[in-house]
Design goal:
It is built from nine helices and ten strands. With 280 residues, it is an alpha/beta fold. The strands form two sheets. It has an eight-stranded mixed sheet, with helices on both faces. It has a two-stranded antiparallel sheet with strand order 1-2. Strand 4, helix 5 and strand 5 form a beta-alpha-beta unit. Helix 6 packs parallel to helix 7. The chain is globular and about 75 Å long. The termini are far apart.
Length: 280
């Protein structure tokens, strides 16, 4: 038996879709194209990303899973434009068990008003799962952001059922090691940061449509702030005279090391920010 060509298969699928009633045809998506349907979406604020998302934005009434290398590293930069859109529409943002306390002034500069933030402090995986489920069952328009490092596949299926009735977007954040695990989330993304100027590297793991081989590179800094940043300068190598006595050379190295910022106690805190803190 000779296999049918891809174009012939696509044509047959399109012909079958035309035979359906309009209310059913709009819910059907073909595997070679991005799913559209009647699902509401929110613009992501990243035009390049919107062109790769089914419907052209973050889905509402559905679960979006973000896999990250390090919690608190880039998820705020990715979602800030969409969260601003939620606030402008009168909605609230529910944060469930974030790994770091959000930097409210930075969010305010991004257009996310502090009075629209609701922080839910959950400690155990059971509490996080219960709080996420309750937030998704609420009928009000909110954006739900939940950090779930430990969750079963059966629990994700239940969250997806709850998210289908939630009018706003829902995001869950899990470690990158969970990429090989099954997930009921229709949209799964892997998020990391590249070298300076630290673009967001977004790999689309799962979506309603064809797979994407190459990751997306999205800017992570605002253009006005990026103009002020400079790549880190490499320290100049220490050159000692060839005639220097070995003991003299070691003494010079000790004096140089003692006067460097790292040994002066200033490298571990930069501008009052502790490494690992959740900041934009």
């Amino acid at each position: 038996m000779t296999p049918r060509s891809t174009s012939t298969t696509h044509g047959a699928a399109q012909d079958a879709t035309r035979c359906l009633p309009p209310h059913l045809a709009q819910s059907v998506w073909l595997g070679h194209s991005l799913g559209e349907g009647s699902q509401r979406v929110l613009p992501s604020g990243h035009p390049q990303l919107d062109g790769e998302l089914p419907g052209g934005g973050w889905p509402c009434q559905s679960l979006t899973e973000v896999l990250h290398e390090q919690a608190g590293q880039a998820e705020w930069r990715l979602l800030a434009p969409a969260l601003r859109e939620v606030v402008q529409r009168g909605g609230h943002i529910l944060l469930i068990a974030p790994p770091f306390v959000p930097h409210v002034p930075a969010l305010h500069r991004q257009g996310v008003s502090p009075e629209r933030l609701i922080l839910i402090d959950a400690h155990t995986p059971q509490e996080c799962l219960w709080a996420t489920e309750q937030a998704l069952q609420a009928g009000c328009f909110t954006a739900v952001l939940s950090w779930l490092p430990q969750v079963r596949a059966s629990s994700l299926r239940r969250l997806q059922v709850c998210a289908a009735r939630h009018p706003g977007p829902a995001f869950i954040f899990r470690p990158a090691r969970c990429r090989a695990e099954s997930s009921a989330a229709p949209l799964r993304l892997h998020l990391s940061l590249g070298p300076f100027p630290h673009p967001m590297i977004l790999d689309i793991v799962k979506r309603r449509g064809p797979s994407r081989v190459l990751p997306l590179l999205l800017p992570s800094w605002p253009p006005d702030l990026l103009a002020l940043l400079r790549p880190p300068a490499r320290p100049a190598p220490l050159v000692l005279p060839s005639s220097a006595h070995p003991l003299t050379a070691h003494a010079e190295l000790d004096r140089t090391a003692a006067g460097s910022p790292r040994h002066a106690g200033g490298a571990e805190r930069i501008a009052g920010v502790t490494p690992g803190a959740g900041w934009l």
